[in-house]
Write a structure and sequence with these properties.
The chain is mainly alpha-helical and about 190 residues long. The protein has helices at about 5-45, 55-75, 75-100, 105-125, 125-145, 150-160, 160-185.
């Protein structure tokens, strides 16, 4: 990636993270539709990889629109997906904090995904707030790491516990702000 691409990706990641972290409950359906589009696009382009660029683009766009429609209709699946992503983030934070390595890492992340999805199914509205806040916090940290290389070094090698604490703080602040904004909806 070029330096400009890294800056753009970093800024977009931070912007998306801020919206998700502090206003995620309100934009959750939009996020689901975008996620469905991206997943559909990825699957569609993978199915026709190696074909003419226009074919890949058209199939990707068509599959993306189908994915967006499916995710819009499958709200509960979207909540479980957000919970699964939150579980993966928690598992990754634990892996970093405990400095784990090796073959158990994918299993730990999968367990985190499954636990997060099951909890999300039960907590529904609260999981949207918690998931978007902490997933947004991850996106903010990722984007900041692209823009400020020292952050990436801290996260991966220097001080993973500090990065985990920062992630937790940003996520908790995000949950608190969303509760302050949407508390009446959450308590229904």
């Amino acid at each position: 990636m070029t330096g400009t691409s890294v800056i753009i990706i970093g800024l977009v990641s931070i912007a998306i993270g801020l919206v998700s972290c502090f206003y995620g409950y309100a934009v959750f359906r939009v996020v689901l539709v975008v996620l469905g589009f991206l997943l559909g696009y990825a699957v569609g382009t993978a199915l026709v990889a190696g074909r003419a660029e226009l074919t890949v683009l058209l199939v990707g766009l068509g599959a993306g629109l189908i994915g967006a429609a499916i995710m819009y209709g499958l709200y509960v699946l979207g909540v479980m997906l957000a919970g699964g992503l939150f579980g993966a983030n928690v598992a990754s934070a634990l892996i970093l904090a405990l400095n784990l390595e090796g073959a158990l890492i994918p299993i730990i992340i999968l367990i985190g995904v499954l636990i997060g999805a099951v909890i999300a199914y039960g907590l529904n509205k609260w999981m949207i707030v918690i998931g978007t806040a902490f997933n947004g916090a991850s996106s903010i940290i990722y984007g900041a790491g692209l823009l400020i290389p020292t952050i990436s070094v801290l996260e991966r090698r220097g001080n993973p516990i500090l990065m985990t604490v920062i992630w937790l703080l940003i996520g908790v602040i995000g949950v608190a702000i969303q509760y302050r904004i949407f508390g009446d909806d959450l308590n229904d």
